[in-house]
Structure formats: structure tokens, C-alpha cells
Design a protein that fits this description.
With 544 residues, the chain is α/β, with parallel strands linked by helices. Helices cover 31% and strands 26% of the residues. It contains 16 helices and 28 strands. The strands form six sheets. A nine-stranded mixed beta sheet has the order 1-3-2-4-5-7-6-8-9, sandwiched between helices. Strands 10, 11, 14, 15, 16, 17 and 28 form a seven-stranded mixed beta sheet that branches. It starts with a strand and ends with a helix.
Length: 544
């Protein structure tokens, strides 16, 4: 017999009540029932089964439209739906082939909420361009998306898969696989970095992809990097286009709109930039300590009160002129000014094996991938604040971590550096990673002492790299903006570049890599843009 659950939590913290009330109204407006079936091992309870129940019960407290039945793996329905592991959560299995292997905890709670809303409407919500792509799929596609509850990028990829399965239920199935619950599958597929998406056993996406790129990868069964729309019939006219949705870009968006300027923020990846991947942010004004993702959520929520954000779009080209044309993967913007807040990306070691084992033991995000290495041995390469912070995070996750630094002193702040010794994290000084070795995944590293040139081998399961960033200056270079001696955008004291109407702010300008610095630069650049649109400095220069 199936066990019916009908739990209601009548009391909620006052700070959450408005949000919960809004969710209740949203669920009440949905036209469809949302049946769920949970399969578990008979006579065996585990934390993932219990966590799955708790998540579902929390949502059921908001609506009667979600129903939950539970069966054991020896039930005939398990055979009917080809369920073999516990826990497995099926979502409306009579109409869709969507299942969760694990529990939608942490960041994946956002994915689960999206799944419930999509299921309740019965509509995928795919863009027009995405629908054109997905209708071309004429053979079955079996998706596996590997995720972690601590990965802020994973929900974007999960939602891509959910939308595809809802749009084409007869052709597309999707399994969302929690690497903490199913490390065996993560090991089998080499999914040591999340999110990763496989279709018909072929890797089609590493990292979060924009919707159209994901579906193009699904159609072609190979990873795609850029999606070019069939037409550019969507045009947005605005005063300011901000390229980049990190702290600088979001802050600039708030300030330009408050100044009365029509503004669009374009971000191709997850909002928040590197902050979203920072485990703990300390001493950001107003917070002695706050999670990086939490801080990003606060910033994005604030920005959305003012500015329109176009997430999942990549800027392909900027044509200076009157107006300036900004072409993305989805539309064209006609604007008076552009602010480049494109940030910076992880710097690579350049060591043999780094690229080969990326996602298979080599990682640039301890927050995303750390849980998979619990009880294993890894090295953290770097000596700055980020490297030390992530080493401490790994240690607290139960990972055996050693810091490897090419100098004899750390660049990290003293208060952070002192925590290494306090947490028994060893440091190998004056050493670089010469190569990364393994078969299917990382098994060892070759270390070279930079003083005597001697090399040693060290057995490790993972290599985490945090050695700084490369500024994202590709767009700037395409339009003739010079770079400074360190490779960052050259600009004046008011964030103006040499191209009239184009500005810069944030990490792409170099300087201190601090969140508060980026937000300050975003605000300053916004005020400059406002003043220049009232009295364009380039017109004054032309008169002179």
C-alpha cells in the first residue's frame, strides 16, 4: 500500500511569511495537480530519504495540489518505472519522465520549486528560439544532470533539463543526480565537477549553459558554446547597457535607473560573478560574516526592484556609434552608453594534465565540488585570500587538504593565514605543480621545488586551483579599447575608456579584488554616465 502524507506546518517565522503567502497564491493559481512518488529501500532509512520527505512536506504545506505517495523498491510500480535506487523521486510519472536521484536540498531547492511551478502550469516556458531547436529533436534523449546542493550554478542547468522534458515528454527524459547521494554514478561518469550534463551517455555540457546553448547541445549531442538566433527581430532601445551581472554591474544598474536612465543588465552566466562561489564573505559593510551566495541573492533582489536583467545572454558584438549597437545571442540593444563590468575568470596553471582532468579531479570551485572529496586527499594551489578561504572550507567539509604555494610567504591577510595552522592545514612552500597525472581521473601530482629544482610525486584525489583571475577584456579589445600593463581595461579616473560612450567598472579594471570596491566603482561609473549623458564630454572635445 502507498503511504499518504499530509503534513502542514502552520507556523513560520514572521520574516518569511510574506514570501510564503506569495508562494501559496502562486500555487493556488496553477491549473494542474502535481503528483509525486518517492521510492525508498524497504527497512532501511537514510538521510537522503528523510531529507527528500522533508522537502516535499515543506512544499505540501503551501498547497494541496502536490500529492506524495511512497513505495519501496520491491513494489511493482518500481519495476514499471524502472526505479532501482533509493531515494528516487518521480515527478508526475504518468505524463513526464523526470526523476531525482537524491534529495533537492540546498541550492537544488530552487530547482525543485521551479519544477513544481512548471509542472503546475504544464508549460515549459522555453523561449521562441529554444522551441525551434527542441522541435528538431526526433530521436529519444536521455538526460543525466549531475548536481550538488552547494553549487549555485546547478539550478540553471537543471531548469534547462526540466523545460526540455516538459516541452517534449515523448522524446526527452531527465535524471537529476545528487553527487553526494550517488557518488558511484559521479565516479562512473567522471562528474567530479558540477553541473555536468550527459545525453545518451555523451557529455553535452560542463557548467551552466544558457537555455538555447543547452538545447542546441542536446540536439547535436555535443557541447556547444554559442547559439546564434535565426533572426534578430527583437530590439531593445535603452540609455545604458551594462555587460556583466556581478557586484559592479548590479550596483551600476541600481544607480543608473535611480538617475532616470533606461538600463539593461546582460549576464551570460550566473548572477553575482565570483561572489556566488565564495563560501564566506567577511566584513562586507553590514555583515561581519555572510555566505557569498546569500549576499548575491540580496544584491540581485535589490537590483530587480530597479533594473531589467537579461540573464543567460552572451554579448557577441558591440558597434560604437549613435546609437551604440550591442548584439547578444538573443537580441539587439540600441543604446547611448555601455558599461563593461565583465569581471575576471579563474587563472589556469598551464600545467600538463590540468585541462585533461578538468571536471575529473581538477576544480576551480571548492563550494561546488568540495562535497565529493569528503574523506579524500587534495591540494589547494595558491596563496591569496581566496585560496586560503577555500582551503579552510574544504577542511571543514572533511577533506584532507594541503596548500601548495610558489612563494615562501602567503599573500593572504594575516587573519586568514593564521587559520591554516589553527586548523592543521599543512603548507608546501616554494613549490609549483609541474604536472597532474592519472587515468580516468586525478591520481597524483608532480611538484617541483623552485629553489633546488627537485621534483616529488604526491598522491591526491583532487587539485583545487585558486591563483587569481584573468580579466574578461575580449569585448573591450574588439572595439579598440587599450589595456594597461597588467592586462586590464585602461580607463580614466571617471571610468571612461578611450571610446566615447563606453565605460568600465569592477574587476575588469584591476586594482583591489574586493566586493566593496567593485560596488563602489559601479556606483561611480553610473554617476559619470548620468552626467555625461546630460553634457557629453566627447562633444565638448570635438568643439575644442
Amino acid at each position: 500500500m502507498a503511504k499518504e502524507f499530509d503534513h502542514r506546518n502552520e507556523t513560520q517565522p514572521e520574516s518569511q511569511q510574506a514570501f510564503l503567502n506569495q508562494l501559496k497564491k502562486t500555487f493556488a493559481s496553477l491549473p494542474n495537480e502535481i503528483p509525486l512518488i518517492l521510492f525508498s529501500q524497504k527497512g532501511k532509512e537514510d538521510v537522503f530519504v528523510d531529507a527528500c520527505r522533508q522537502v516535499v512536506r515543506a512544499f505540501r504545506a503551501l498547497t494541496d495540489k502536490i500529492t506524495l505517495k511512497e513505495y519501496t523498491l520491491d513494489h511493482q510500480l518500481a519495476a514499471k518505472y524502472n526505479v532501482e535506487s533509493s531515494p528516487t523521486l518521480l515527478i508526475n510519472p504518468e505524463h513526464y519522465n523526470i526523476r531525482w536521484l537524491g534529495a533537492p536540498m540546498g541550492e537544488e531547492g530552487r530547482s525543485f520549486l521551479e519544477a513544481m511551478l512548471l509542472m503546475g502550469t504544464g508549460k515549459s516556458g522555453l523561449s521562441e528560439q529554444s522551441q525551434k531547436v527542441v522541435t528538431q529533436i526526433n530521436e529519444p534523449r536521455h538526460l543525466k544532470i549531475f548536481v550538488s546542493p552547494t553549487c549555485p550554478y546547478c539550478p540553471q542547468q537543471v531548469v534547462n533539463g526540466l523545460k526540455a522534458a516538459i516541452e517534449r515528454p515523448e522524446q526527452i527524459s531527465v535524471e537529476i543526480i545528487d553527487i553526494q547521494c550517488r557518488p558511484d554514478l559521479a565516479e562512473k561518469y567522471g562528474a567530479h565537477s558540477v553541473p555536468q550534463a550527459f545525453a545518451n551517455e555523451v557529455l553535452i555540457g560542463m557548467g551552466a549553459q544558457q537555455e538555447e546553448v543547452f538545447l542546441s547541445s542536446l540536439l547535436k549531442l555535443s557541447p556547444q558554446t554559442v547559439f546564434i538566433p535565426e533572426s534578430t527581430d527583437k530590439i531593445v532601445e535603452t540609455d545604458v547597457v551594462i555587460v556583466g551581472g556581478g557586484p559592479a554591474g548590479l550596483t551600476a544598474g541600481i544607480y543608473t535607473v535611480r538617475s532616470g536612465l533606461r538600463t539593461a543588465v546582460i549576464e551570460k552566466d550566473a548572477l553575482g560573478g565570483q561572489v556566488a562561489l565564495t563560501p564566506i564573505v567577511e566584513n562586507y559593510p553590514g555583515f561581519a560574516q555572510v555566505g557569498g551566495k546569500t549576499l548575491v541573492d540580496i544584491m540581485v533582489t535589490h537590483a530587480l526592484q530597479y533594473v531589467q536583467i537579461f540573464q543567460g545572454e552572451e554579448v557577441l558584438e558591440i558597434k560604437p556609434g549613435t546609437p551604440i549597437e550591442v548584439s547578444t545571442t538573443r537580441r539587439k540593444f540600441l543604446t547611448k552608453t555601455v558599461l563593461l563590468a565583465t569581471g575576471a575568470t579563474h587563472r589556469h596553471l598551464g600545467a600538463p594534465g590540468e585541462q585533461q582532468f578538468s571536471g575529473r579531479g581538477v576544480s576551480y570551485c571548492a563550494t561546488c565540488d568540495g562535497p565529493l572529496f569528503k574523506g579524500r586527499k587534495v591540494i589547494m594551489v595558491g596563496g591569496g585570500n581566496s585560496a586560503v578561504t577555500e582551503a579552510l572550507y574544504l577542511k571543514h567539509m572533511g577533506v584532507s587538504v594541503t596548500l601548495v604555494h610558489r612563494r615562501d610567504t602567503l599573500r593572504a591577510q594575516d587573519v586568514l593565514a593564521s587559520q591554516l595552522q589553527a586548523n592543521d592545514i599543512p603548507v608546501i612552500w616554494n613549490t609549483k605543480v609541474k604536472s597532474i597525472l592519472g587515468k580516468e581521473r586525478v591520481q597524483k601530482v608532480v611538484l617541483e621545488n623552485l629553489k633546488d629544482g627537485k621534483t616529488t610525486e604526491m598522491a591526491v584525489d583532487g587539485v583545487f586551483i585558486s591563483i587569481g583571475y584573468e580579466p574578461a577584456v575580449g569585448l573591450a579589445q574588439k572595439i579598440g579599447i587599450p589595456l594597461n600593463s597588467e592586462g586590464y581595461i585602461d580607463h580614466d579616473a571617471f571610468h571612461r575608456t578611450n571610446v566615447p560612450g563606453i565605460y568600465s567598472a569592477g574587476d575588469v579594471e584591476g586594482g583591489y579584488k574586493q566586493i566593496v570596491t567593485a560596488t563602489g566603482q559601479g556606483a561611480a561609473a553610473a554617476m559619470t554616465i548620468f552626467e555625461d549623458l546630460i553634457n557629453p564630454y566627447w562633444k565638448e572635445a570635438q568643439k575644442a
